[in-house]
Amino acid sequence: MSTDPMPTSQESALHVLHIVKQVAAELHPNQHFSNTLNLDSSLDQDFSFDSLGKVELLLRLEQEFRVALPESLLNRADTPRDLFNAILNSQARTKNCALPELEQVQLELKDTGIAPELAETLLDVLEWQNQHHPDQVHITLYDPEGEGQTISYIQLKTEALKVAAGLQALGLQPQAPVVLMLPTGAEYFYCFFGILYAAGIPCPIYPPGRKSQIEEHLNRHASIVRNSGAEIMITPEDALPFAALLRNQVTSLNHLVTPENLQQHVGELTLPKIHPRDIAFLQYTSGSTGTPKGVILTHANLLANVRAMGEAVQADANDVFVSWLPLYHDMGLIGAWFASLYHSAHLVIMSPLSFIARPQRWLEAIHRYHGTLSASPNFGYEHCSRLVDPKDYQHLDLSSWRCAFNGAEAVSPQTLETFCHRFSCLGFSARSMMPVYGLAENSVGLAFPPLARGAKLDCINRDRFSLTGYADPVSSADPSAISIVNCGQVIPGHQLRVADSRNRELPDRQEGHVQFKGPSATSGYYRNPEKTAGLFKGDWLETGDLGYIVDGELYITGRQKDLIILAGRNIHPSELENVVSELEGVRKGGVVAFGSQSEEFGTERLIIVAETRLKAADALNAIRSKINQASLDLLGLPADEICLVAPNQILKTSSGKVRRAACKALYESNQLGKRTGNIRLQWLKIGLASIRGKLTRFFLDVLDYAFAGYCWLVFTTLALVFTPIALLFSKLDLRWDALSLCIRLMCMLTTIKVKVEGLENLPAKGQPSVFVANHASYLDGYLILGFLPRAVRFVAKAELKSNKLVAFLLNKIGVEFVERFNAEQGYADITRLSEDTIEKRSLFFFPEGTFSRVPGLRSFHLGAFITACQKKLPVIPIGIRGSRNILRADSWFPRRGHIIISIGKPIYEPPEEGVSPWQSAIKMRDLTRVEILKLTGEIDLKSEEPMNNVAEIE
After folding, report:
1. Cα(849)–Cα(826) distance, rounded to whole angstroms?
2. Is domain 752-936 classified as CATH 3.40.1130.10?
3. Are 556 and 487 in contact (CB under 8 A)?
4. What CATH number belongs to 6-95?
5. Whole-number Å distance between alpha carbons of 851 and 767
6. pLDDT in tens, 547-586
7. What is the CATH number of domain 563-678?
8. Sign of the dihedral defined by the CA atoms of residues 322, 327, 332, 336, in that order
9. How far lies 509's CA from each of 130, 464, 465, 896, 920, in Å?
10. 14 in helix, strand or coil?
């Protein structure tokens, strides 16, 4: 007897794994498979094999290794190792030889060029980088006059370990917070990872700013440190006096240390075990709506977010991220630094103060280092547009900048247009501008637009929107138009929706509360159970923002708590603030608008506060007149009070966002100007209009409930009448006709308009075909039954047979059942369907296998296309639009809407010599999917879920 040596066995195992990955990629061309998948990865969960895919895989392995594998392996094999062992067993029986010992063959196929996809913590990522390229430059601290200080991966680790030793010497315990109050610099990076190595929790806060706001700064930081319970604060030497004042207000704060103090400590270091669910850091919210809250973010949260954002923008080691964003803010810390660390990208960073003083430095750094990625709040782009004249910087080349992220605050359409136009002469492409949406409660990123599309605006009717919340599209030339910026679609692996005040998901174009969930989402606020409870609505998290969705893409309209309800209208203050900011004499970005309740009338008053450097009474009166006129032009109503204040008096967050709630509190405590009286007649007018607005929205809400109840009454009544009638007919076609009439009548009675397009593309009656449609709602099967002028055989999941009544009714309309969990039986079912397709009616598949509340077209299963290729039948693509808006998954609350059923031209691929039926089916599937994407206008989703069913109908 002979035994194959280990290298041969290892090569064979690698070959098996290669074939598994090859077939998986053919099955799901849009799905990303990690390069780290190995022999023990799941065929179902990790490689997303369905029954037909497993059959093809076994055939490939048999051909490649010249063995006969048992059919039972379709159900027994859970991993590539199981397949490999089966091949070895078959070879051993053939050759009558002993099996080699292969239990120790571990194949992870790590590629030094890819991101560390198996990392579970931030420390794992840094360790991975040090294993593969320790001396590579990770960070460059930008110096406009010289080369600037650089930090390699090994430097970051070495210096961080020194900090960790110093923290342990101070008695830092695992998962104890450490306040980090440092400016942008090498010490910040060393200290952050030093805290992590010591198993502490970094708690970043920003250093003291202007002396004029030292009291407000001190009070805010005291509330953060008090909530965290931190005993240690790391601060620079020059901030120690401020830190001492802070310590006097917080009893838990025992140690004030500088980075130099910590790094000078020499002693033993014990590295505790860090787990993915451990808190990686506390991101304190900006406090724009009250007391700051510490968002809990674990290592798992951060890595999930970095991976999803990286996938959305196709980030890799060739990218260069240029950032001026502060490191105490999630956009700069996670979006710039952690993302660069994970993807092995070069991070070029400068101080925020350096950018504020000389905004051209941001653009110079992008030019100098060929930056590909960079981000800024809207303010940063506006700052450049106002202060940087491209004519003075003709030597700059911004053509390398492929993703210009604009987020963290309201995005101004005017700023987008101005920046893109102004800097196009320097090579900046308008297609690079990417308005994004995110929040600390989801680590940082939540929605990104498609790459290289550029900014997209939605022009809607302002009056109808403010009165009803419906975003009615109009021409940009319409005098009532308002432009809302598109923020893209939710990042991979996460979900996003818009819900009403009763937590019901709303249809497209209806404004509501923006909610989300996913692996990046926080578990709550640190030591704040009350605020944590308010964050969750079931398993969804509230963003606190208002917005609407169109075709799966998000439009943010304002913050829920910032709404001003005036004269029966919902006014979003950001639009008014932008208009007032443009007025001569008003400081750019120094405007805040909010609603304040009148104690006398109980209605809301519109208050506008604007910063100005002017002091003369005549000049101030002129500004007030301009602001009032701007309010009248925009809203049709004057402001109730206009307060003009000196520069820097309007409170803002660390990221530059206006703190409306805090400004409102100052105003109501009589600290922001003097209150002026108002004419009672004006208040009466506003009060009556307010009542009208409230009644309008209440009436619309009542109508929604009435419509939903009416729909279910109609459905139940017609089902009870028509189902027995249909069952009386002996012929299948007559049953189909009766139920079709029932569905058409139901749509007519519920005012749901259904339009069928492309009837001329249907094949001649009697010609067998394979029909394929997208699946978006519970309604889809009924719609096909009611409006496809042709009887077909639906293909449904075999589990439906477990309900005897359902199985009986489906059998009566000729539904075919397919097993989706037993691969062997599933293949037999598809084979059976293929054999009798010519003799019976055409087959109808929903190849996505299921549907979801999330918009988008999922991956297609191959059953329909295998059948079509085996019997040389055409595939008829059908696109269903509008059904998801009427009745979404996980909801039984129908809404008004209209539906379009589009029938595409038949797709037929004649068999080619030398091309297997499998390859023909793959080609036909891809052609069909492209056509259905066109017919539906759906987003092309990348499948994130295991796909183990052949097809199903809901």
Report:
1. 13
2. yes
3. yes
4. 1.10.1200.10
5. 29
6. 999 988 999 988 776 767 665 556 778 778 888 988 989 9
7. 3.30.300.30
8. positive
9. 49, 12, 10, 12, 41
10. helix
